[in-house]
Amino acid sequence: MSLSGTKSAELRFDLKKPCKDCPFLKTTPHHEGVASDLMSISTSIESENAAFTCHKTDPRSDSPTGQRHTGPVQHCAGFILMCEKGKTPQVPYLTAWCSRQFDLDKLDKSAPVYDSFMDMVRSYGHWIKGQLHRWPGLEAK
Questions:
Q1: Within-domain flag for 28
Q2: Does a structural domain hold residue 2?
Q3: Mind listing the pLDDT tens digit for each residue in 28-56?
Q4: Phi/psi class of residue 75: alpha, beta or left (left: φ > 0; alpha: ψ in -120 to 50)?
Q5: 33 domain-assigned
Q6: Pick from 63, 92, 139, 141: CA 20 to 30 A from residue 9's CA?
Q7: What is the share, in percent, of the chain residues with pLDDT greater than 70?
Q8: Could you list the residue range(s) of the whole structural domain that residue 63 is in?
């Protein structure tokens, strides 16, 4: 989930590892909703202004049980780790790190996140056939 519509004061950085079905993990099955958002995610990452909440803590998301999350909203640890691994720093996380809201060294760097956002896009190739031309050089790899 992107952060639009969520107040930054309500967001927390307590998660140290991605949840088991985080879309930024290589081990998570592909999802049509994520595939449909890849282009907007790419645009946000390129502007270095991307940030995501953990889908399990986002009050706008329905849980599998049909209950809305009512606890604190958390930043997505998987997204932060993927950006760090892919060397694509994002302003919201750098700002939080500089203000000591979270410590990157405490994140579980062994989590099997994608090596980069482009790796994630490649893995979704079967979902986005016909759109690969939007990412120059992607089809050649």
A1: yes
A2: no
A3: 988 777 888 888 888 889 889 888 889 88
A4: beta
A5: yes
A6: 63
A7: 77
A8: 8-134
CA-CA distance, 73 to 24, in Å (whole number)?
18
Instruction: Identify residue 53 by its one-letter amino acid code.
Output: T
**Total number of domains constituting the chain:** 1
Looking at residue 11, the DSSP 8-state letter turns out to be E
Query: Where do we find the tokens 């893995």?
Result: 123
pTM over 0.85: no
Tokens of residue 37, six digits: 């958002």
**Can you name the residues that pair with 113 across neighbouring β-strands?**
25
Residue 35 in contact with residue 128, Cβ under 8 Å?
Answer: yes
- Residues 98-126 have pLDDT tens digits of 888 889 899 999 999 999 998 998 888 77
Domain assignment present for residue 139? The answer is no
Neighbouring C-beta atoms of residue 96, cutoff 10 Å: 20
Instruction: Provide the token pair at 91.
Output: 């302003």
Both tokens of 141, joined, read 């790899």
User: Residue 51 corresponds to which amino acid?
Assistant: A
